[in-house]
UniProtKB/TrEMBL annotation:
Biased composition (Pro residues): 357-369
UniProt cross-references to Gene3D superfamilies, sorted A to Z: Photosynthetic Reaction Center, subunit C, domain 2 (1.10.468.10)
Keyword Transport: yes
Cross-referenced InterPro entries: Multihaem_cyt_PRC_cyt_su-like, Multihaem_cyt_sf, Photosyn_RC_cyt_c-su
Alphabetical list of Pfam families matching this protein: CytoC_RC
The species this protein was found in: Methylobacterium trifolii
Protein's UniProt name: Photosynthetic reaction center cytochrome c subunit
Length: 369
């Protein structure tokens, strides 16, 4: 009997080992640890070597287009309807059009944005969105250079990766249809959603933390500031929202909490890494992009591009980061396209951008559960 159990145990162990080595989702050596904080604090980024290689491979920046000769007539003189790129030479303008096509619509080509009968025509919503995207990219590379994107910068490819719709976008999440459930209200949580790592934490955190520039500065902060309570403090639900957001941020960057925090005391800035400061600005940048660049496009996007609540598709950390702590392996993608780093001439929507008449006005935001 005993021998039989030993043999059976050995067989099970063997099969489990084979399963572990042969199936996805298991972390197996060799590991590649990277020290993030002071020695002894356990602040390490632990990935597998194979995982690191796969991550680097999946985040290659495309080679920039060959430079064109300087000079020649300006695009504004050659073309009829250029509102953002008029200062470029016509050659440089065309170079950028070709690159934009590779970055955003390689399969669809120029016709994704253009009515090829008349290139100056603005009738396609894609072209009107792209014009705003040009301004947004300039805004990111100029206004947010010091605080977040540094010399690396972004191009359309950072988010789009060869797709008209970036892989990582978000809409307001109405949650499951509460009327048909057993419990009428789930308080915005207890549903396994991917954005919070399939935990039961609140799923509406993007709308709560990433949509508005006037979000109070302490919205994410939940730790007490004093040893003994001096006031009522925040409810436990706020702590759950903060943890949900933090899980989403960690996933977006492919890191763990110690990439930014010394978990001895997560709130203390003095013990946090510089990454946390970059992330703090990243949160503000995301709010800025969503409020000033994406949301005003509500009347431009056709209804089939809007979310279940009628809101526009929006940006979060993963839109640029795509699971890597440095998007596109930290390549300085904007170097070869200085026109995308110029300060935006006017932050407003370009004049003469008609809202699509067929589009109903954006639905009002859903009431908070
Ligand atoms: C992702 C959208 C997009 C794609 C793809 C695209 N364009 Fe454009 N194109 C624009 C936008 C936006 C403008 C207006 C730029 C401005 O206002 O400064 C424009 C303007 C132009 C103009 C100026 C027309 C005029 O007279 O006003 C030409 C020419 C042009 N594009 C050529 C091309 C060619 C050729 C391709 C394919 C290789 C292409 N575009 C692909 C978005 C796009
Ligand atoms: C910070 C990330 C980001 C950058 C950088 C960016 N985009 Fe976008 N883009 C988005 C998001 C988010 C959407 C909304 C997705 C959707 O349309 O459903 C979008 C939508 C678009 C669309 C409309 C696609 C459709 O059919 O709905 C076009 C066209 C476009 N972008 C062009 C560009 C161009 C051209 C550039 C570079 C000048 C650029 N984008 C840079 C995030 C970005
Ligand atoms: C990419 C950097 C980054 C990662 C990774 C990260 N955080 Fe944070 N965390 C921040 C920033 C930035 C703030 C402050 C946000 C603010 O003040 O607006 C913060 C705030 C917090 C707070 C609130 C602190 C306070 O002042 O009350 C908690 C709790 C927290 N994080 C926990 C976590 C946990 C748990 C993880 C891992 C699941 C994690 N964080 C991962 C950057 C990060
Ligand atoms: C518009 C694109 C974009 C968005 C959106 C974005 N980032 Fe970044 N982020 C970058 C770029 C580009 C870099 C690389 C800068 C460099 O190489 O110095 C970067 C770098 C970082 C770093 C430093 C990583 C390192 O290894 O040095 C952190 C931390 C970070 N981002 C956190 C965030 C968080 C958190 C969010 C969301 C709240 C966010 N980012 C949103 C573009 C973006």
């Amino acid at each position: 009997m005993r021998t039989l159990l030993v043999v059976a145990g050995a067989v099970v162990a063997l099969f489990l080992t084979i399963a572990m080595l042969g199936t996805a989702g298991w972390t197996r050596p060799p590991m590649a640890g990277q020290q993030i904080g002071y020695r002894g604090t356990g602040m390490d980024l632990i990935r597998t070597r194979a995982g690191n290689e796969a991550l680097a491979e999946a985040n290659q920046a495309p080679a920039p287009a060959d430079p064109v000769e300087e000079g020649g007539e300006k695009a504004s003189a050659v073309y009829q309807n250029v509102k953002v790129l008029g200062d470029l030479s016509a050659d440089n303008f065309n170079r950028l059009m070709v690159s934009m096509t590779e970055w955003v619509s390689p399969e669809q080509g120029c016709t994704y944005c253009h009515n090829t009968e008349n290139m100056a025509d603005d009738s396609l919503y894609q072209k009107r969105v792209a014009r705003r995207m040009l301004q947004m990219t300039q805004h990111i590379n100029s206004t947010w250079k010091e605080k977040h994107v540094h010399e690396a910068g972004v191009t359309c490819y950072t988010c789009h990766r060869g797709n008209p719709v970036p892989a990582n976008i978000w809409f307001e999440n109405p949650g499951p249809n509460a009327k048909s459930g057993f419990i009428a209200r789930n308080n915005g949580q207890n549903v396994a959603t991917p954005e919070v790592g399939l935990t039961s934490l609140p799923y509406g955190v993007y709308a709560a933390f990433y949509a508005h520039k006037n979000t109070p500065d302490d919205a994410i902060r939940v730790n007490a500031q004093s040893a003994l309570p001096e006031s009522k403090g925040k409810p436990i639900q706020d702590a759950e929202k903060t943890f949900a957001l933090m899980i989403s941020m960690s996933q977006s960057l492919g890191v763990n909490c110690t990439f930014c925090h010394n978990t001895r005391s997560v709130a203390q800035w003095g013990e946090s890494t510089p990454n946390r400061v970059t992330a703090w600005h990243g949160i503000r940048m995301v709010r800025d992009l969503n409020e000033d660049y994406l949301s005003p496009l509500a009347g431009t996007f056709p209804p089939n591009r809007l979310g279940p609540q009628g809101d526009v598709p929006k940006v979060n950390c993963a839109t640029c980061h795509n699971g890597a702590n440095k998007p596109l392996n930290g390549a300085h993608v904007v170097d070869a396209y200085p026109e995308l780093a110029k300060p935006v001439a006017s932050a407003d929507m370009p004049a003469g951008t008609p809202a699509q008449p067929a589009t109903p006005p954006a639905a009002p935001p859903a009431p908070k559960p």
